[in-house]
UniProtKB/TrEMBL annotation:
Subcellular location: Cell membrane
EC number: 2.7.13.3
Reactions listed under catalytic activity: ATP + protein L-histidine = ADP + protein N-phospho-L-histidine
SUPFAM superfamilies: ATPase domain of HSP90 chaperone/DNA topoisomerase II/histidine kinase, Homodimeric domain of signal transducing histidine kinase
Source organism of this protein record: Streptomyces ardesiacus
The name this protein goes by in its record: histidine kinase
One Pfam short name: HATPase_c
Location, primary (coarse class): membrane
Amino acid sequence: MNATEPRRRWWPRSVRARAALAAASAAAVILAGTGWWVHHDVYRRSTQIAEDQAKAQLWPLCDQLREGVVPDTTSTVPYEVVATGRQGAVAYGGGMADFDPDTHHVMPAPSRAQQVELITTVRLPANPHYNPSDKLSVSGGTHQVVTCDIRADDLTTAKAAALGVAADADLRVYALVLPNTADAITRTTDLLLLQAGLVGLVLIAAVTYFAVRTALRPVEAIRALTASVTASDPRERVTVPAATGHEITALATTLNTTLQRLDNAAAQQRRFVADAAHELRSPLTTLLASLEVALAYPERTDWPAAVTTAARQTRRLHALAEDLLLLARLDTRAPATAPDTVDLTALAARLTEQYPLTERPLTLTCDSSAPAYAHGDPDAYERLLRNLIDNAVRHAAHRVQITIRNESAWVVLTVHDDGPGVPTEDAERVFERFVRLDDARSRDHGGAGLGLAIARDLAHRHRGTLTLAPRTLGACFALRVPRAPAPDGE
């Protein structure tokens, strides 16, 4: 066999064949156990029937002997009557003639008289004239016998003389329990069980195969349809079966939900690419136009102004590229599990003091009564707070206030501005990427619409939330992150 060739397995690959084989195997185990139980029960009952036949023959023989009558040799059950002090059998029949009991009785003579019924076993001698076709032959082997003893006191002298025994002789009657009866019935039953079991296994396997085949038809239809779905065009949907509560219905519903998420993700990706291209095109167009004009009319160009414009647009491109790279990293990396402990109060106070407010007069304040510790990455928290402050400063009219509070197991940080606020219907849309509610405003001052999206992603990475709190004046963004214990020594 080639080393690269996969090994052939006896276990079939088809689900239909596997189900049929599994059902047939389970049925075989059940049928085998049932057959074993039936075999032993039939043998036990058949043996009991044979014993009852022997007993039915025994008691009439005893009655005849007590009347002094020698029983007839014709009998359906082999029997023999022996007596003490007598070498040959008193009477015999039912196939015992093969042993010639007239010469010497086959069964052992009684040692004492008992008027009770006994079931015991005896070993019969082998008969050289044994005919295997004779079902009544009991030559050789150990057999069960049913016995009954007749005491000498039960017989008168005349009855004893009629039977050919001494007046003080004790008699014992033996009736053989034919083993052929139980064996024949058991063999017949076993053959019927085997035939019925084989036919049943074939029917179970066939019914299971076709039942699974019918049940898997919707799955095959789902597979054929989903094979045509691509990441760029995931608009196909699976037909949901009408039967409620069916596994195929749950599969189809789940697959449609997955396809819908894939469709939404593809649409979001296309929208993201289009928005990113649009955002990049604006500063590139301004930069290219400024440079082309400067190159076309170098003697009339205000070079400091041109360089200033180029630098501003380059910084804008750099900031946009950094935001896009950060979003890409946030989409691919696992949630942050940094062991650092960050004091959000100290961080917010430092950003408040260092934040440049040169374009227009604004008041930026930080209100906190105690340190507020949280686990996470200090740089990520700084980027998150800076984005919230940038957004508030961009929209505020006169004032921006940062508040930090410890609330039970959470640290709650809010950034509140006195600007125009956010409509209630846009409370969630404002966190989407490239979404700006002030489209009429200049893009140079309005940003790219990525700050709040980055801030929410960073909050989720630290197992927190970022929401827009309802306010009658301005906008208030609330950050909630799990509270951490104070570092040692503080």
